[in-house]
Design goal:
Bound molecules: 2'-O-acetyl adenosine-5-diphosphoribose
Oligomer: single chain
Shape: elongated
Number of strands: 9
Distance between the termini: 15 Å
Strand order of the largest sheet: 3-2-1-7-8-9
Order of helices and strands: EHHHHHHEHEEEEHEHEEH
Structural class: alpha/beta
Helix content: 25-40%
Number of helices: 10
Largest sheet: 6 strands, parallel
Length: 239
Amino acid sequence: MKVTKDTRVLVLTGAGISAESGLKTFRDAGGLWENHRVEDVATPEAFRRAPVMVWNFYKERWQQALQAKPNPGHLALAKLENWLQDNFHLITQNVDGLHTAAGNKRVIEMHGSLHTCFCTRCHTRFPMKDINLEEDIPLCPKCKGMLRPDVVWFGEVPYHLDKIDALLHNCDVFMVVGTSGVVYPAAGFVMTARYFGAHTIAVNLNPMENSEFIDEFYQGKAGEILPRLIDEWINSADK
Ligand code: OAD
């Protein structure tokens, strides 16, 4: 596939791209869902039932994200955006903020962010760093309502789906990186993009659940494959 400055590239990333930054994925051996049940920490019911436990899980993950640094996979995507500008968009299921830290600007965080929280009563959003996390259940500085992590839980609707839908209908290349392809709606994006004419590429350590919709598959670590692939695109477009 030849990619030039006029190619509209849409990327979808999952936890695998941050694995080389030291953050756990969900479903690999030793992943987050091995030690935590989804129903205990990642549903609105869990938060109603046991808010302290849910908050502890996300406080810890926020601390881990703060310490993590973008790896060569993230940096390669920042280089790609710098080259393609408005022809580049990045949808991420990750909540760690590492794409923004790497320099990407056109980032859609469809599952929210560990770096913000919002009030369950007045819905105001706050940066986590401005909140007193010593409290078991942090309270809203404005209305004293209960704050919650700004992360989309199972049973909730992901953010920015309208914008994502428009991008899926209007891209030439759709590239999926480091996601197992089991969580919907993100797992269905590759099918939509392909149906509307995109060439589909995947970079993943292992074959994915939805691999029948992938035209070009690169098996291995994102931090090793993406820098090579993206440099190849940029260098051969200049020729
Ligand atoms: P998963 O843990 O399900 O999948 C991570 C994928 O990354 C696996 O297919 C791995 O093989 C692959 N992988 C691991 N290391 C890699 C590396 N260095 N380079 C490339 N690939 C690598 O994580 P997600 O697919 O992101 O949702 O999970 C999707 C959603 O499920 C998450 O956003 C989260 C979770 O439950 C919510 O919390 C709503």
